[in-house]
Amino acid sequence: YCLSLDHPGRSRSTSQDDRDSEDGDQPSPVIPVDPDACILPDAALCAFTLLDSVLVTLVQGPARWKMQLFEQPCPGEDPRPGGQIGEVELSSYTPPAGVPGKPAAPHFLPVLCCVSPSGSRVPHDLLGGSGGFTLEDALFGLLFGADATLLQSPVVLCGLPDGQLCCVILKALVTSRSAPGDPNALVKILHHLEEPVIFIGALKTEPQAAEAAENFLPDEDVHCDCLVAFGHHGRMLAIKASWDESGKLVPELREYCLPGPVLCAACGGGGRVYHSTPSDLCVVDLSRGSTPLGPEQPEEGPGGLPPMLCPASLNICSVVSLSASPRTHEGGTKLLALSAKGRLMTCSLDLDSEMPGPARMTTESAGQKIKELLSGIGNISERVSFLKKAVDQRNKALTSLNEAMNVSCALLSSGTGPRPISCTTSTTWSRLQTQDVLMATCVLENSSSFSLDQGWTLCIQVLTSSCALDLDSACSAITYTIPVDQLGPGARREVTLPLGPGENGGLDLPVTVSCTLFYSLREVVGGALAPSDSEDPFLDECPSDVLPEQEGVCLPLSRHTVDMLQCLRFPGLAPPHTRAPSPLGPTRDPVATFLETCREPGSQPAGPASLRAEYLPPSVASIKVSAELLRAALKDGHSGVPLCCATLQWLLAENAAVDVVRARALSSIQGVAPDGANVHLIVREVAMTDLCPAGPIQAVEIQVESSSLADICRAHHAVVGRMQTMVTEQAAQGSSAPDLRVQYLRQIHANHETLLREVQTLRDRLCTEDEASSCATAQRLLQVYRQLRHPSLILL
């Protein structure tokens, strides 16, 4: 837009109240901008500047930047420029590539300014008003070449968003229309900052005499001897004419790294450059006075730049636009700043105040300073190592917690299907020294895609029947803890532990083996939050409320019951040439062993087990199951096998001798219990004629015989447990029972209730009778128990 400021419009109320409220102040001018004032309606226009009678514009093309020159318009009825007088293409335009998932990079506009030699006839007010400046002839010739010096032509400097700093000789561009040549020869790249160019300026760094400073006028043309350019990320370029070692005038170029990102910058008097960041407004001094030379150092040639810059803070933040006046009447510098919130501020600075710079020091103080710095570096390095270790421990703990969460979710969501992490238990007999021991083997298998590392423990709890059934018992379960270390996907871990016999020489069956995965939160999280070997008080202070209240997380894996049917051994099934020695019974008393060796040859053993087997009739317990129910339950794995043989194989499925029983198609078998007593299993088919009015019900009777009442109870309990599981599974499939004689069932139920009441009476009588009368009570109690072990009912 081209506007005329000769007769600005005014917007003011003419009421008397407003005049009184302003106390006679002059009204603020309001300049309207009409659409007719537009002289270049180009949406691709990115930057422009004015020089004498020329309007210089920079346009963003589809692939390249384009600089265009127009005749300067005059405000009037037709403010449009007279015509284009020059055009040249700059480097290719590459839009910034965005990073997926991150905010788009900010859009930067190019920077334009005009530079004139000291002998140019361009008025100073035109240069200063458009952001231009005048360079000394030495620096001007070194930067732009002999052509620009001979033509006394202004030069247009252009800073592009990709970091290029290039120049175009204005008169050469104008004359290229009449004598066209290579357009690339008109453009010269001075430097590449490798970051968006924010500001281009120039300043006077050589100190002036005091008497010259007093005669300095603000409108006087200043010949700058240093060209500066700022990048967005804090890189600053300074170019100055200097003498080399051979006495030749060469351009001296230095790059400085200053705090960034840089929002704006301005050049002031006294060799000072101001630049703004989001957090501060800083000033640096490029004059030679900012880096005083020592007596032992050689003096630099004229135009030397300081080797380093020390920014001084002005404690003003978020300045987005900045302008510096060269000098005020009071002898200082005045800054005009616009903040990001729209506040316009003026700042007055004293040029005589000492700028911060590297202070000179003695050799002793330098050595002491170096020692202090090395000591500080050592302390920081030690602290960094502790912090790094703490961070590594916490990262490891977070990884372990993430794995634990994944494992927990996988186990809890598996439901009734196959579990990603399973633990199976099997039993076998082993001989340790002179005693047979029942061993349990637990196999932990990781079929998931996760790894069990630090903090995981396999807990195996062994609970005997005495602890489970006797509520008043003081015994406790035995728990084994096995650390799980580096159990990756597909790996297995096998653990073998003894189940019995115990210290009393007996094996209390059934035995329940429960396997559980335990994850220790205290071990993983507590160690990460409070490293024990750290000497840093910050790391040792761990608030107690951060540590987990619970010790850990328990994830049940399996529950396996070891009963009498799994512990039976069958020495008679082994071939004669491979038959193992007879299983040893429980540990015997040394005195009884001595008396056994002293008995006469051919005499019978006099132990309690042998006497019981010789003189007492074997105890019998039985259970009857519908043949139809058994066929439906065993049809999958026992097709073509007689029902009695299939039933015996099913009962001994978890026994090590099941393969021999299956190969010989046995329906009855005699084994040895853990205490050495014989246990006889007989499976036969029977017919139940009194239950169903439609006719006999085909059934299978499972009979257990043994001279040991404890062993027969344990074996009967194991058979009943398997039957309960089978009936529950078949009931879920919707099988129905036949019609039964209800009155007959009621009579059997009444008889059983009578027997149970008699058992309670007999047990109470045993507690009060003497030894002589208690024998008859015990005999009757045993008879009642035998009747209860032979029910007249059948599982349907």
TrEMBL record:
Cleavable signal peptide: none
Domain of life: Eukaryota
Record-level GO cellular component terms: chromatin; cytosol; Fanconi anaemia nuclear complex; nucleoplasm
GO biological process: interstrand cross-link repair
Disordered: region residues: 1-34
Protein name (Swiss-Prot/TrEMBL): FA core complex associated protein 100
